[in-house]
Design a protein that fits this description.
Layout lengths: L18 H5 E3 L7 E9 L3 H15 L2 H6 L5 E4 L14 E2 L2 H6 L5 H6 L3 E4 L3 E5 L7 E3 L11 E3 L1 H15 L2 E3 L4 E7 L2 E7 L2 E3 L5 E6 L3 E9 L6 H9 L11 E10 L7 E5 L14 E9 L6 E10 L9 H8 L3 H7 L3 E11 L10 E2 L2 E3 L15 H19 L7 H8 L1 H8 L11 H13 L39 H7 L12 E2 L3 E3 H10 L5 E2 L9 E3 L1 E2 L9 H4 L3 E2 L14
Parallel strand pairs: 1-10, 2-3, 2-14, 3-9, 6-16, 14-21
Antiparallel strand pairs: 4-8, 5-8, 6-7, 10-11, 11-14, 12-13, 15-18, 15-19, 16-17, 17-18, 20-21, 22-27, 23-25, 24-26
Helix pairs in contact: 2-6, 2-10, 10-11
Amino acid sequence: MASLNGAVAPSEFPPPVDSVKEFIKRGLDPEDDRIEVGVAIVGGGTAGLSCANRLLQLLSDDPATMERLGEVPVAVIEKAKTCGGHSLSGAVMRPGPLQELFPHFSREDWRRERFAFGEVKKEAVYMLPNARMKLRLPVPPNFSNHGNEIVSVSAMGRFQQRQAEEGGAYVLTETAATQLIVQDGQVVGVRSGDKGRGKDGQPLSNFEPGTDIKAAVTVLAEGCWGHLTGAAIREFDLADGREPQVWELGAKEVWKVRQPLDRVIHTLGPWPLKLARKYGQIGGTWLYPMTDGKSGDDLVSIGFVVDLDYRDATTSAHDLLQLFKTHPFVRGILDGGERVAWGAKALPGGGYWSMPKLSMPGALLVGDAGGMVDTAALKGIHHCIKSGSLAAEAIYKHLKGESPLSPYEEAIESSSVGKELYEMRNARQPLSKGFIQGFPMSGLSIVSKGKLPPGRLQWHRDDEEPLFIGDTYKSYPKADGKYTFDKLSSVYVSGNATRDDAPNHIRVHRHVPREIAEGWRWMCPAGVYEIPEDAPQSGPVDVIVNYTNCVQCGAITAKGGRLTPPEGGDGPLYTLA
């Protein structure tokens, strides 16, 4: 592959999509052609299910309000085969919000339910100067995890789904919400997607049309890059006065190992990233001990996260993870083991200044949909749970006629969510200046809880960062199928079951400069984007989109494309992620 001197921003080739026109439906179908529910929650992940469970707890003590909401007081609409099926994280969770939500479950109960793997009692942070050395650092405040719980968010999703169904929720899995329904300036529900269409959109023999789902309140809990969330932000100007959202991409594996890992480990760069500022690479890693609670196997979660505002088009989170595993320190933990799971997911990285307005007439944003992630600490699960609970409390008061939905925003601001994110409000922006210049300033912001540097530090969108074809790819190890792996074999491990004849759910320009095409090809952890072998080494090239490989990570939306929902039931089926 030729190394080129040119650079071009993906934002110059925006995806062929109009969010407001395509993803917002004006008005409801006639009464006989729609479904009516009390509260519609789009997304059966951590935030959405926390909202459902808390709302049902409140309604259980108020049968009159429950009855007024009809036969389906709470509906959870989830596009995966099961709740949690598309959920992925590290993950070490601060336990407080989950304990508040389910006070009758102890932490031992969590482990018996097989979504939690033990309390963090030891931890370590290392700097990796190069491919062989490691330097142990004092644990900084943002990486302090003592007393937190190691969890699987996909397994937690299945646990929360059971609790919600027992409480009276109707959970519609394998159902994509494809349009937000707006009538007279207010959200009044969502439309579910069609099923059984072929590659060209034609109805097949098993075709089922989508349906309008009317709701008194709609909760957008789509997680990262929800297309209805994006449409709502534009329709209701929810990002006015905010910084643009920026994103990170994480690739993760779970290994069955010979010797148990006894501590939570994080590493900082510069290795395996490029130190020079021209590459624009910032990222980090984790190694977390897990035990599956069933077989007694010793498991380790290992992952690599990279900011998506990098400049070298050959930056690849998946391949950087494979390279990270070649470090003697990591090999000493994994060697002789077996990879049992893999996944990839983007996450919002903008923090406090990038959070949009969280309420609009008839609807609320919760969790990752509202950007509630502290990426300096790699923490967002407890924010998802807390925001879902606070949303439920605001909805309950609204249904009782006591208040509008807008006090939810004040509740977030004054809660642990708003306070913790505010303290980290300027922690990540300095890193855009490069590791050497940005790391000390970022550390100062963390230690001072945002007071230094003062003011509001700004971002720019990831797709506005010009891409050039660099040489990061030259360091990636060749997959051996035992310790290092290629992308396609990893997609197989994810449980991806997208139909080969399903419609394309990815929007990109198919004829773009080579720099952008290379950026998509290397970025995608699932091998969705290809460049023909006979394509020119410079200038515009055609892009092949293997959309059935997609694991719904969402990174393409940060770098010049647009991810939309696949047919309900398609995509990965994460179990340990």
